[in-house]
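Researcher: For the record, we're logging two predictions in this thread. I'll number them. Prediction 1 follows.
Model: Prediction 1, sequence and structure:
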Amino acid sequence: MDRTEMKFGDIKVKIISPDNVGNSITERDKEMDKRARAAVKSALEKAEVCQKPIAKYDLEKRQAYIEYPNGDREYVR
């Protein structure tokens, strides 16, 4: 199973890739994940409609940036 453990202070978090969820999480957790994804998608769509900038992450440059409605990018330092 594809798992990663990360530690944040005293808290351990298990990260499971979406492809390998299987029996690792409960049905209730799966539903919560589904709702969280839908909420984020809705917020991003609303920001686009309202012409608001959106924070994103560039995997190649490994850097966060803000993308403006006109397509300009401002990388965060």
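Researcher: Logged. Prediction 2.
Model: Prediction 2, sequence and structure:
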Amino acid sequence: MNRLIAWLPDRIDRRVRIAAWVSFVLNVVIIGTGGAVRLTGSGLGCSDWPVCVPGSLVPTPEMGIHGVIEFGNRTISGPVLLAAIAVVLFVWRIRRERRDLFVPAVLVLVLVIVQALVGAFVVWQELAATLVGFHYTVSVVIVCITAAFLARMVEPAGARELAVPRAFAVLTRITGVVLAVTVVVGVMTTASGPHSGDANVVRTGVDAELLAHVHAWPGYVLAALLATLVGWAALKRLRPLRWLLALLAVTLVQVAVGVYQARSGLPPLAVGVHMILAALAAATMTVVVLRIKRPVTTDAAPDAAAAAASAR
């Protein structure tokens, strides 16, 4: 055990960076494969959990391609869990000085385990729409946390200070709330739409067309807010500019995909792209929020600590 602990990194090295990126990518991939399960009607391709079908861990020929698709999505859960464990282990020795990395690493591991349990209930409850929506939402949260880990990993630990005007920071956080609302309403819209994962699944009963219009409203507000933030950041050369540009680009593509899918009868591929882009937009928004602060310089750190103590 001592040899293992001694082998673990005592700083942010290549192993930490690779494990963190693998964790982020795999959690995005599993959203895509989970979407493929629903969009191909393969939600009950494996009718049991943790086995695929009673008496068999893997899909049987009788399950056809749907069994292969659902089992493939389940299989990715293993690497997702292993990557989460690896990240926790690789920051173990620096857990005290880098709590900003250790805490999110542990949170991701816990949520990945929770996701496995939620997935079991999704199968046992035969793809209940609310459970499926919750399953996706948790995946988006995990992607955001892994993105936050990546953003903090490249910066030093310690105190942070506001790097933008306070009004800009407030508007950025408001934009984050609008993005969250957009994603949640999007999940509700999907839960009432036709792509249930299986032809026999009962949907929520809410008018999907009405929800699609409601979903569009915060999406347009989000695009307007992002355009405002990009213009402001470009004018003042603010720290989050590059990430805001990336987020605006993703959002505009999202709007285009959303309009296309609504006018084209919700083609499965477009819906799948929309799901993945929503997760990537949420992850990018997370990084933008983190970028409104910067590490306190060494010279300024004592003053910042004194100010914090005085405020307390």
